[in-house]
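Exercise 7. Predict the joint structure of the components listed below.
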Amino acid sequence: MALKQILVPIKVTIDYQVRVRVRSDGKGVETEGVKMAVNPFDEIALEAAIQLREAEHASSVHILTIGPKSNEEGLRHGLALGADTAQLIETEGQRLSPRQVAKILKAEVQEKKADLVIMGKQAIDDDANQTGQMLAGFLEWPQATFASKIDLKAKDKLHVTREVDGGLEEVSLSLPAVVTTDLRLNTPRFASLPNIMKARQKPLEHKLLSDFKDVDLTPAFEVQKVTPPPVRGPAKMVEDVETLMKEIGL
Amino acid sequence: MTHFIVLGVFQGNDLSPATRSAVAAVEGYGEVSLFIPDISKSVEAPTGISKLYTVEASETEHIASTLGAWIQKEMPDAVPIAGADTWGKNLMPRLAALLDREQVSDVIQIHDLKTFTRPIYAGNAFETVVYKNTPCITVRPTAFPVEKPEVKAQKPEILPLVKAERAVEMISPASPKAGDKPDLLQAEVVVTGGRAFGSQENFQLLEGLATRLGAAIGATRAAVDAGYVPNDYQIGQTGKIVGPRLYIGFGLSGAIQHVAGIKDAKTIVAINKDPEAPIFKVADYGLVGDIFDIIPKMQAYLEKS
Ligand SMILES: Cc1cc2nc3c(=O)[nH]c(=O)nc-3n(C[C@H](O)[C@H](O)[C@H](O)COP(=O)(O)OP(=O)(O)OC[C@H]3O[C@@H](n4cnc5c(N)ncnc54)[C@H](O)[C@@H]3O)c2cc1C
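Solution:
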């Protein structure tokens, strides 16, 4: 088997179908009673890892999340989808920067001796698109971001198709490496009921943020304010093409 | 005085629009140098640029290692900045890690070098954050629009190459779009098609209209997923962010993830056969109708006038 352990970091975010609202204190968005879910890009990353294991290219898939205790639900979901082991690194409401997250991930990659990290290209809450590249930088591993296709070519070679502004490019990289996923990589499966039951028996390890003594966790930034975007619309409705074209000056 | 290093790229014979925006974002705040990988001769750089640097490598890993080592040694206080296109998004966080700095992504407003405003949740909220230390920066190109700047030829200084241990190897690069079609990020007019087109063939209907209007063509994720057009047409939270004078959306519903990419358009027009389509809630003008009826009529109108 080419790969021993694939590590898939996941983030639990507000479900992508929820209409996000700014909190009245202007310091964040409404999360009270709001539906949470695994970040869609991370589900795609997990699906890719599971497919590699099912094709017998990898021995096991480990998922981990950094967040509050309630994130266990997201991990159980990942285990039901097919991850082998899971780990919660529990926070107490701190908001970490991508750099701090990447440092924690680096420590976990080394402890678990992972030889491939697959993760979402961005999380749909802060849309930062940084953590995978930072992790690759800290580990000094090659990186293939925005992947829409992953092929294991030889024991230690991946071919990745990347979605870039100019179209698609194909790159080759040696393992270990970091790959970040775009939406068209795959369509994640649904968790079946028997697998949801089985997931309850799978190992879910706990750590605390404070276990990471070497990572500086003092807040890197402070949120000054969060505001709703300027209002647009609703549209002025017109009756026919001619009126429309005149209205918009064509 | 702060020294900014803009990480840029060429697109064809010009600096990429994202690169020009990054220059515009910090011009006047300090000294601005430009880094462009893998150029061998003089290039036309904006006149506001004080120095031009390059490296003889095109791999992200080698570029980041070279820049990291050089900045640490020669100008440890310099601030790297790039446009938030796929090139900048890929490179900047890696460099930030090597410099052990934070990064602020997709900035739409720079208040001072520690305070920035940026969109979160697909643009459904704007967050203003204050950093403890000045971070590496990527900017949203539509927030810092620029005309073509005045340029003068500059000769690049080649930075000493520092190689990463391992780097990706290019098998096949993206092939730039053929011909003289306007670029989505620069076009004055963008026409966009959604799932309603139903096939690659039908999507071609937009071509004629686009040519008439001198418009670039965009698409929703649904249209790209269905194979009507390639991935680089996608507009939205995970695709391109466009800021044209006029955007016209045909047969698309207006999902928040798509709307995230069009909010910087001056005028948004929507054509949809469903009067309840969410796109009408954010558009400036709406017309209820069938795209297969409306598009030919628009074209006929333009040919007449
Ligand atoms: C994490 C994530 C990221 C995403 N990122 C993006 C992104 O970057 N960009 C993006 O576009 N999407 C993105 N999406 C997908 C997005 O949620 C929507 O699924 C997608 O935008 C829908 O595309 P659509 O409007 O073409 O299709 P639909 O929602 O199916 O809308 C089709 C519309 O066409 C109308 N219609 C049908 N036939 C006709 C006709 N003959 N004439 C006129 N009108 C007609 C219908 O009334 C309907 O409103 C993302 C989703 C997720 C989960």
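Discussion. Chain B touches chain A through 87 residues (CB under 8 Å).
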